[in-house]
Amino acid sequence: MTPHNAFLEIRNLTAFYGDFQALFGIDLTMDEGDTMAVIGANGAGKSTMLRTLTGLLPSKGQNIRFAGAAIAGQPAHLIHKAGIAMVPEGRRLFPSLTVEENLSIGASGKRKGPWSLAAIYELFPDLHDRRHHGGTALSGGQQQMVAIGRALMSNPRLLLCDEISLGLSPKVIKDIYTAVPLIRARGTSMLVIEQDIAQAMAVATRVICLQEGRVSLSGRPEDLSRAEITRAYFGFEADEPDTNEPAREML
Amino acid sequence: MEWVNVLIQGVLLGGLYALFAAGLSLMFGVMRFVNIAHGDFIVLAAYLMLSFVTFMGWHPALGIVAVVLVMGVIGYLGQRILLNRVLGKDILPPILVTFGLSIILQNGMMEVFSADSRRVSSGALDVASISLPGDLAIGAMPLLMFVVALGVLAGLHVLFFHTALGRLLRATSDDAEMVPLMGGNKAHVFALATMIASGVVAVAGIMLAMKTNFDPSAGPSRLLFAFEAVIIGGLGSLWGTLAGGVVLGVAQVVGAQIDAGFQILAGHLVFLLILVVRPQGLFARMKG
Known about the structure:
The structure holds two protein chains of two kinds.
Chain A: E1 8-17, E2 20-30, E3 35-39, H1 46-54, E4 63-66, E5 69-70, H2 76-82, E6 84-87, H3 99-105, H4 117-123, H5 125-129, H6 140-152, E7 158-162, H7 170-185, E8 189-194, H8 197-203, E9 206-211, E10 214-219, H9 226-234
Helix pairs in contact in A: 3-6
Chain B: H1 2-31, H2 38-55, H3 60-86, H4 92-113, E1 129-132, E2 136-139, H5 140-162, H6 164-174, H7 186-211, H8 219-233, H9 238-258, H10 263-277
Antiparallel strand pairs in B: 1-2
Helix pairs in contact in B: 1-5, 1-7, 1-8, 1-9, 2-3, 2-4, 2-7, 2-8, 3-7, 5-6, 5-7, 8-9, 8-10, 9-10
């Protein structure tokens, strides 16, 4: 079904919080260069999937292959070394470090690649002027830029973004999402979790929708209709006309 | 002039207390973990110094290097093999384990070195003093200890604020769960923090050995002084630790001046007073 040289391949992924099962057999394949959007309502299992992927949540006996190697069950720092970096939900900057220190600490893996302090400041010029400020003395949008820059500093092959628009104003979200094509242009693949479906669909080359821990829809944004997405997202039919319009028209 | 002299002695004693406190503060700062055996590790370092210099006849300089190295290795391995396994959301297991370590260390040292009170002689330095105008004299040994304490704290400052390892340790202190996502191996980072703390403990133990008599049960009261200095100074603040040590040292020496039996109690009273008036400490950096 899937070629063995897939960039990221997840087979039958399950996850538990104690006795509570959060994921029920997720399958996902991603090619290098893809920007994959993972959408779904609160509690659908999106963040859990990322936590499992990064090794923060133990995933014994799972089948996750990244760039030809099995990474399931590996500790998080080795998965990071393999080339997966994450922009966590809520940004999680280090408050006692300056902006530049927050960025630099992301580079501790020493992977070679296009990202450096200069490249990050080129991507987010606002950060250059504030590089000696404390990481948390910035606006929410700037903090999100630091969080993205910090993850990029490790020169990841795959960048995971968990709800980067959460709590930001529409204008700031637009600014942040302007960076996504620029990041992709430098050869970094992305997997973006988003509740803002419009934003996600605008940048994604592939989209999957999760619903109660299962994949409810998967495909290319231009092939998916609004009705399909609504059904996959909420689990029921939308009571609206023109439901066969392509999803891009939602924007 | 007598009171000026008392003040100076107190400040110099504070340097030693700051060293007692620095290792404890560092481990708490990075790992949110209180090492109940901290004082016993200080005494262990003192006994190592005694063994190397007095029993084996090594040159003191070699002895100092050896004690720091041995304590550093013990710290790294102890954290990696034992303490990392009990660190988690529950704060009780590490407290119980280090409480157990404290008992093991005290009894082990009693077994090996007996309950006799010991001291490492520093030769002519023991009695040398520097005369100051106004009939004041500062002992060479207390002054040297204070200078060493300043040097160790300055070294820690450089390490924490001007090196990549220091950056990683500060980040760990902020949010340890995020460190693996930066490519840091948390077990290794924690062990490095304990290794550095143990190096500071080694210096503190060497000074204890040269300044005063010690025996296998001397640890808990050193732990108490360390706690008091950390809390007076404020959690997580390196230079606050020095201030805390100095406040404690001055309180004790002033207390002793009033009445010889009042020394330790005076320190505790000032500690309690600060806990009431300013519970976050004089230079708090950390909250909660």
